[in-house]
Amino acid sequence: MQSVKTQMMKFVIAKTAVVALIASVLPALAEDMEPASVRNCTWCHGASAQGYAPAPRLAGQRSQYTENQLLSFIKHTRDNPFSKQYMWGATANLSPNTMHYLAIYFSQELPKAANDGDKDLAASGKTLFEDGNPEANTVSCAVCHGPNAEGVRDIPRLAGLSYYYLKRKLTQWGEGYHVAAKAPMPGIAGKLSSNEIEALASYLSFVK
Amino acid sequence: MKVSRKRLALLTAILAIVFSVAGRAEDADRAGTSKQSLQAKIEYCTTCHGLSGQGYHGFYPIPRLAGQQTQYIENQLQAYIEHRRQNKYMYSVAHVLSPAMRTALARHFSELHAKPMGDAPKGLVATGKKIYEDGIPETNVPACMACHGGEAKGQGAIPRLAGQLNDYVISKLLNWTKERGQDPARPDISAIMLPTSHNLTKAQVAAVAAYVGYLQ
């Protein structure tokens, strides 16, 4: 198990390499196509917004969801450690118009699946996602997130997000982070076992 | 004399308490469910159907259960289990419920009084009211109120429509033949709505849904 610090160090080193690469390859044209506000996001979320290390994919995410999350960083209600460390500062000076623009911009980028979960757990994760576990009073995820985890309105797309991001997010609900989020997610995720979280995060990482 | 009267009062009070507790225990017994398991199941239902049973907008519209007729709820749960009503999520939910649990849940939700979500276009309400109360003679659509009642509260196996989610009512009426009465060998009461769901236009469906959605 790597410490968060080592993970972040690797992340920063890798990003620096990627940034240097992009800077050397991409013509100045790219700057005209992408406003600075987008570039500020893609430094960490990946050049095509597919997510990178702890930063989740933004590509294909529901715009209403992204916009709500940006607001929740500004209001400090989304309060897990990485949010505090990175997103509170990153969003502090965004205007409502810029947030709206960014949310729509990224929603229109085509998402790719992270495919980084445990393949052996995907089948049980799928069952849990679709049917829940009625005996244990665990609800189906698909009823709100959609049969292909595509999300709708302000309910996020989960399909293809990285295993690590999903696992962390689901675990953090249960640890009491982001309690200001509307019902029902804090209550649902807080009751999931770590095995169930592993299975769900694995399955979703493969969904296209 | 005075003392014995006091004693009598005390005895009466004790008896009253004992009986009321016994009554409640009997209720739970009759339902065949412990209070605890019923409470856990209610929380499970309200996760999707809204904390006060008012309905919720997930990927699909999730209907209001508050104030719904007990017989209707029980019938629908049975229909999911027997695949007469098609919905894979509700099949999964319903097939593990004991008959006693279904009865207890139906009773619980029938007694809730949530406010309607009020998410329908207000401009359609007047047209909807007319259809609801008078029907549409030209296309043989009966007045909805003939069965669902003047206040749309339903009765017995006929559902309450008052306060129901706008998009839920619309999607049910437009998909009636695909979702209801799916076992030809076992026709059920859902057949009553079949001709009407065919004879209503999309605009008429939207109007009726808007009208009932605002009823308290």
Oligomer: heterodimer
- Can you count the helices of chain B? 11
- How does the helix and strand content of chain A classify structurally? mainly alpha
Q: Spell out the helices and strands of chain B N to C.
A: HHEEHHHHHHHHH
Average pLDDT of chain A? 88
Helix/sheet category of chain B: mainly alpha
The portion of residues forming beta strands of chain B comes to under 5%
Distance between the termini of chain A: 28 Å
Identify the most extensive interface between protein chains. A-B, 24 and 19 residues
Q: Layout of helices and strands, plus pairs?
A:
The complex is a heterodimer of chains A (208) and B (216).
Chain A: H1 4-25, H2 29-33, H3 36-45, H4 63-74, H5 81-91, H6 96-107, H7 122-131, H8 142-145, H9 163-174, H10 185-190, H11 194-206
Helix pairs in contact in A: 4-5, 4-6, 7-11, 9-11
Chain B: H1 2-31, H2 35-49, E1 56-57, E2 61-62, H3 70-81, H4 88-94, H5 99-110, H6 125-134, H7 145-148, H8 166-174, H9 176-179, H10 194-199, H11 202-214
